Amino acid sequence: MSRVTRFAARDPGPSARIAGFIGHLREQGYQLGVGDTLIALQALETVDPCSIEVVRAALRASCVKHREQQQNFDALFDSYWLQNGRVREKAAPKPSERNLKGGNSSRSTAGQDQDQGRTDTPDNGEGEIEASGVGRKVAARRDIKLKKDLRQWVSPEDVTEAEQIAKQLGEQLRHQRSRRYTKHAHSTYLDLRHTLRKAMTTGGEPLNLAWKMRPYRPIKIAALCDVSGSMEHYSRPFLAFLAGMMRSDPNADAYLFHTRLVRITDTLRDRDALRMLNRLTLLSDGVGGGSKIGANLERYAERYARRFVNSQTVVLIFSDGYDSDSPEPLVNALQRLRKRGAKIVWLNPLKGWVDYQPVARAMAAALPLLDHFAPATTLQDLADLGAHLQ
Amino acid sequence: MTPDIQPALESQGYLAADNLSMALHIAMQLERPLLLEGDAGVGKTELAKALATHLNTELIRLQCYEGLDAHHALYEWNYPKQLLTIRSAAAEGKSGATVEQRLFGEEFLIERPLLKALQATSRPVLLIDEIDRADEAFEAFLLEVLSDFQISIPELGTIRAKQRPFVILTANGTRDLSDALRRRCIYSYLDYPDRHRELAILHRRIPDADTHLLGQITHFVHSLREESLEKKPGIAETIDFAAAIAGLGLNDLSDNPALVHQALVTLLKTQADLDAIAPEVSARLAGRA
């Protein structure tokens, strides 16, 4: 296979390559330790590593620890071992297709040129063939410019401040208690049943008393943050808040959505605030574009909520309710979330305005299904939220 | 090349995907627990059963549930028996010291699955089912057992595994498992089988049924899984459905759409799903199958 990556002659051998591959996976967010490198090597020893598919399967089985990882493993494998990145880049313009188009009509190529390459190509219009050849690249460059840098939105200082607030909120939330009693050493409730059982050891005399109490039942927070164009100015404090919350509360769960839904829980837990923001920026291409609230919430209710949402969950939705789609999917999704017993709190930055009326179609449709509908423009608004989350 | 375990499982009637058989192969070779995740009904528990039959060994199953604690999983002293022994010893006039020697012997120990797996003489398959239902505290406790394969009973001392059991953990996503647990295991996510494999499974399970009909049924179930359902039908449901259809004497799904619709109770397990698939929808799916 000619596609297989050629390693330099000074490369110290297979073990080092595997270690390199593990490092490659680690950069992509896989949590793998030194022990895992060893497992990967041992796994390869148990199979016949002459075929690339066997190696792929063995490494997949030993490195993948998550469903999401199982899905993107193949691409990562290819990019390391098969130099897929470089190959694809070369193949990207697909010469056969381009020739076909060029042969068909020159006008269509010119149209493509207008669509993709115009604004940034200085030699625009000079030659059709060249324009269509580089058009894709230029388009990609423009895409990057459109991409919002989240670092402009959130600073590491914001995150520290929000962390404090999120911590306070977390403390407030913990005051909910379960209805069941469990054993507890320092309580004022006598656990009769257990006391009697203990009494057996002392010949039926209840000398050692046992106590019980109702344990705290922490509330889980699942937060979904709208980062579409209309929310651009408001998402900032909320993202900081989410980052703060993820650090202080191991049970919390966070998502971004614009046209897609992205789970950012693990990213936000990164200890280095700056690196976290970098990773977040990478995850959120499409920020500042349109939003599909209904579709995204539906995807959430279908995929993630099944795992993470139960009766102890509060779902925080931070959005202005301007949806480009019809409200039905939104209502459907909210109903499904309610069915799981979750509390739904919608934070709308526009609600802080003087005579705001929830007239946006999606917002109006969602209103009857919400447990709480509150304004949220600053971190303080979020701090005041505690009372409503219980 | 596929690992040898694949044909071995196949002879037990379990058709494992390549991914899964490789994970199982590595888990067995490296003596690591195998963590299987996937929707209900994709064959996670079945794998453990098939493996136990193939290895001709005992399958020890620990079903997890909310509130499961170490006592239910490991061992418990048989209190009533101990009390009775004390009473009878007192009646016979024996001294306290001799009775006490006996009270915490193995005859008063009730073995729960984990201890049983450690004490088994031939290497057993230990199935820890639906680990995500147990509390996080139990998960942490389990980590300890799984890393050393030894437990300490204060009255008896430390019990080491005679042979390391093959451990299979299953989870269907009630909650997210801790990274620590994931790290210690070989992981594999089980998806619904593709059409080809599901057909093969049906063939094995219902050998008398007509090939054409089984093909239609797999097609039907696959299109049903693409509908938006609360609970997608798993393989077990497909087998039930196929058995129901074959039992009803149908030879072709499009023959009697009404009957097919009624047989949906074997596939769809919530009222909302049954409502979502109207007779017209099932007829359309059956017609296309």
For this entry, give a set of tags.
heterodimer; A: 390 residues; alpha/beta; 3-stranded antiparallel beta sheet; 18 helices; flat; B: 289 residues; Rossmann fold; 2 domains; 5-stranded parallel beta sheet; two-stranded antiparallel ribbon; 15 helices; 9 strands
Task: Describe the structure in your own words.
- Chain A is an alpha/beta fold and 390 residues long.
- In chain A, 51% of the residues lie in helices and 10% in strands.
- Chain A has 18 helices and nine strands.
- Chain A has helices spanning 14-27, 34-46, 52-63, 67-81, 84-91, 95-104, 106-116, 128-146, 150-153, 156-173, 192-199, 235-248, 265-268, 273-283, 293-308, 328-339, 361-366, 379-383; strands at 182-183, 189-190, 211-213, 220-226, 253-257, 261-263, 313-318, 343-348, 372-375.
- A six-stranded mixed sheet of chain A has the order 6-5-4-7-8-9, sandwiched between helices.
- In chain A, helix 16 (328-339) links the parallel strand 7 (313-318) and strand 8 (343-348).
- The longest helix of chain A has 19 residues, at 128-146.
- Chain A starts with 13 loop residues before the first helix and ends in a 7-residue tail after the last helix.
- The relative contact order of chain A is 0.08.
- The model of chain A is unreliable at 85-150 (pLDDT under 50).
- By secondary structure, chain B is α/β, with parallel strands linked by helices.
- Chain B has two domains: 5-76 and 105-189, P-loop containing nucleotide triphosphate hydrolases (Rossmann fold, 3-Layer(aba) Sandwich); 195-288.
- Chain B contains 15 helices and nine strands.
- In chain B, the strands form three sheets. Chain B has a five-stranded parallel sheet with strand order 2-5-8-1-9, sandwiched between helices. Chain B has a two-stranded antiparallel ribbon with strand order 3-4.
- In chain B, helix 11 (211-226) packs across helix 15 and helix 13 crosses helix 15.
- The chains are: A alpha/beta (390), B alpha/beta (289).
- The A-B interface holds A 31, 33, 35-36, 39, 42-43, 46-48, 51, 54, 57-58, 60-62, 64-67, 70, 200, 302, 306-308 and B 1, 3, 18-19, 22-23, 25-27, 29-30, 32, 37, 79, 83, 173-176, 179, 182-183, 185-189, 228.
